[in-house]
């Protein structure tokens, strides 16, 4: 059983680390580069595609992390049920729920796309990804410190 608990902690920490890395790269690299596209129409198309793809992968990583930390907590004997597992699972759950925050979206292809609207949506999305990366990093740091403290 201890190896199953350690595996759950490892999977949860790795998933949360990947979540943080993807969120950070979206906020720092991918999303800002959309503003360099020559016109609003291709920027809107790429933005919508990027948001849909990234949302699916980020939500999956956050849910895997959430479930792994909760499973590690449930499988742990009473003397080893550290609260950091629940706190880290909570942070991963918040990261997964961050997709539910309403944002200015450009879902749906339109023939006449306004460049200012695209720029607003891209900048709003960048701020959300920065916040998501910050939350993910906080959870990842808790998980690493918790595993280090466990000696696992």
TrEMBL record:
Keywords: Membrane, Transmembrane, Transmembrane helix. It is a multi-pass membrane protein. It is found in: Membrane. Coiled coil: none annotated. One of its GO terms (biological process) is autophagy of mitochondrion. Its main location: membrane. The keyword Transmembrane helix applies. One of its GO terms (cellular component) is mitochondrial outer membrane. InterPro entries: ATG33 (IPR051668). The chain crosses the membrane at residues 16-37, 58-78, 131-149. It comes from the Eukaryota. Belongs to the ATG33 family. This is Uncharacterized protein.
